[in-house]
Hints:
alpha/beta, Rossmann fold, 8-stranded mixed sheet, 4-stranded parallel sheet, 13 helices, 12 strands, 39% helix
Amino acid sequence: MDVVRKGLPFSGYSDAYALPSIIRCETNLYLAQFAFMKLLPAKYIIDQALARGTLTHGMKVLETSSGTFALGLAVVCRELGFQLEIFTDPVMDKGLENRLRSLGAEVFIITEKAKHGGYQRSRLDALHARMRQLAHSCFWPRQYETPDNPAAYELFADQISGMLGADVTLVGSVGSGGSTCGTIEGLRRKAPGARLIGVDTFNSVIFGQQDGERKLRGLGNSLVPKNVKHELYDEVHLISAPLAFAATRTLHERHAVFAGPTSGASYIVGRWRARQFPEETVVVICPDEGHRYVEAVYHREWLKQNGSPNGADVLDAPATENHPSTALPPWNRYLWKRKTRKAVLSVLEQVR
């Protein structure tokens, strides 16, 4: 990333687009707009594997992903000359699948859900079977558990602190846990009081809800990733899919920020926080741009079919819930207070 400071051209697409643009939207509200955020950890994980010798040329890269981590790996593998195999499920949109294949990746769509763990478990099972076939000639980046995932966001934390200082309130969606946990760890090394608000969706198990169908993609999980360090979060907000879709449109209409639904979900939380606490500097992570959603979130008929309210009807504030497991749509807030997941869930057991 030194090329920016030195005024040199970027060496490739992954260098040019790994970090976001920081945009001021309101007095104390800033958006970190990524082209697609998972490019940053994909590049870092592959670079670290090459440096350690756990990945060498001639080996295949294998990963399970239904979103932009697959795309990040595809870009990096294309630049470095590695073959890539992605194990995904029917929820991957056709545009992303086509782009992966165009970059040379093989895409395997797993069509059966596991009884426990859903598609994420069945995708992992298929990946493990393929790894047994390839033996030592493959590398698995393990985005959900490798410490290189959160470590990649040290660069992003430095970018924020260099522009706005480290004592900020960071708001971001939670899927693998890498972006929110890695960034706040970097910020808290300079400002221990920096605040972290995680944004999840209903029917995601990460913060204690029961697993179920989720229409909002790019956040949430049917398994609890090792990279989610629950004790780093000050608050957790759960956002419904229709509300996130409407907020995404509002973000575009008010600020011309063209982003995906995970950005909309985080934006509505960040906007509320910035207005409630005007003395804070609030930074919202926007993980990707809106190109994949032109025929969905940015299409009025699609919005009507998916029960999304008009932008004017977007809620201004969440309900505050006594426990995340009992939270109900469309928007609930829980004061997590940097506790472990076990400590939070045990509170409900004590009540029962």
